[in-house]
């Protein structure tokens, strides 16, 4: 084989090998095979010496072209490897994508905030049970035996082999009774919990919801204490400049009874969607604990007096967030829940 033929064969080989280089290691063995002092190209240069003088220009030119091609192509391959290693697939300068975090349900968050405010005012948390008996849900709360609230229409009764007075509590006032039966005054309790009423489910009402009850029993507790407590709470929870309105009302277990309204925290009394254009928001039902209730629960009404209040938690969540369908809080739609 003449040197020229060798150079042509080597060109074919180099062209093929260059294309097959797929790693830094492969590039290196290419370089060691062809481009170093003991490589194939240098061997050809040495072979030139034996070429006839008149053939030298032609063979030398072919060899120079081959060297230029091999070195040029190799430089390109090397450059592309360098680019790859200096731009890693992971850009560590990008801001991190944090883990997707869950959150407490808005109802739980609201109960937590309410409890925090009342406990900071000296109330302690008490809990009862969802399944109650008639005495704790109604009887000891001064509901007459024929009071309409005991009606099958409102109350879910539980089928029980030998009792007909087992039910799902219709309000957290049952916990008041349990607390008064088991604690000695002074009593200062806040009682969050789930309650049940046999009502049609619609945008305004559910058959299962939450209430928070408050109870304070001590010597000489008056309506002024009730007013002061509710106003201090509402100014912290809703609006520090709130105004209040106490309307007379009726509950069997309180006397006198009232409903407490607050100037709308959004429109400050001007009238808006949240307060249904009245300027006022109802915040709770309340009253002085009825003497009959105190004595039913073993507390002497001549020695002690107290106040109680209660309100629905879902209504608070709806009001604060301008939501007009209570069912949204129970559908577990992530598009709703992820906003809290
Ligand atoms: N239990 C009452 C209700 O469910 C609320 C209430 C509690 C009213 C305590 C007065 C005192 O509507």
Question: What does this entry look like structurally?
Answer:
- The structure is a single chain.
- The chain is of the alpha+beta class.
- It folds into 2 domains: 3-86, no CATH class; 106-337, Bira Bifunctional Protein, Domain 2 (BirA Bifunctional Protein, domain 2, 2-Layer Sandwich), CATH 3.30.930.
- Helices cover 39% and strands 19% of the residues.
- It contains 11 helices and 9 strands.
- It has a 7-stranded mixed sheet with strand order 1-4-5-9-8-7-6, sandwiched between helices. A two-stranded antiparallel ribbon has the order 2-3.
- Helix 1 (3-20) runs antiparallel to helix 2 and helix 5 (106-120) packs across helix 10.
- The protein is rod-shaped.
- The two termini are 83 Å apart.
- The mean pLDDT is 93.
- Residues 171, 173, 213, 251, 254, 285-287, 308-310 line the site of phenylalanine (PHE).
What binds here, in terms of ligands, is: phenylalanine
User: CATH-wise, what's the superfamily of the largest domain?
Assistant: Bira Bifunctional Protein, Domain 2
Q: What integer is the average pLDDT?
A: 93
Structural class: alpha+beta
Largest sheet: 7 strands, mixed
- How is the CATH topology of the largest domain named? BirA Bifunctional Protein, domain 2
Helix content: 25-40%
User: Architecture of the largest domain, CATH level 2?
Assistant: 2-Layer Sandwich
CATH class designation of the largest domain: Alpha Beta
Task: Tell me the quaternary state.
Answer: single chain
Number of domain modules? 2
DSSP strand count: 9
What is the overall shape? Answer: rod-shaped
Could you list the spans in which at least 5 consecutive residues all have pLDDT below 50? none
Taking all Cα atoms into account, the compactness measure Rg is 43 Å
Q: Output the strand order for the largest sheet.
A: 1-4-5-9-8-7-6
Strand content: 15-25%
